[in-house]
User: Fold this.
Amino acid sequence: MESYSHTQRATLLLAIFVGTAIFLVAILATGFTIVHNAQIPAPVRWSIPLFVLATQLVTALLFFALTITVGDGKLTWRFGWGPIKKSVPLSEIIKAEPMRTTFMMGWGIHYTRSGWLYNVSGYDAVRITLRTGKQFVLGTDDPSGLVHALGVPRE
Assistant:
């Protein structure tokens, strides 16, 4: 039984991908007139934009959203359509506190001074502390809803 579920979309990330994709498609459609005279072999001229487009497509599919659920005795978060996901038992969570991330902390999945950071957009987040003392941060545009759903003390 699920008691909380919220999805945050990666709107800025997707806008950047769409803009870059339009630029790369325009380069492909114009026949590379910009780089045509640069003595770059045709296979290289085609492979670089196509590689970038393919990489962006995969990244967009993996990180277009972050869904956080609380239910069935665990906190679960997953990116995109779901291949990247994690969960922790609710019994292991001793504290949940709203926080603001910074531009320097960035987006995505990486380690910060506050523990592992998982986010796709914005600066609102919830810092989770486990019984072991380990911490991690979940980005969300509904920090108070997530803290309430976890039902643990907050600072």
About this structure: Residues 42-63 form the longest helix (22 residues). The CA atoms of residues 24 and 30 lie 10 Å apart. The domain at 2-6+66-150 is CATH 2.30.29 (PH-domain like). The beta strands are 2-9, 65-71, 74-79, 84-89, 93-100, 108-112, 115-119, 124-130, 135-139.
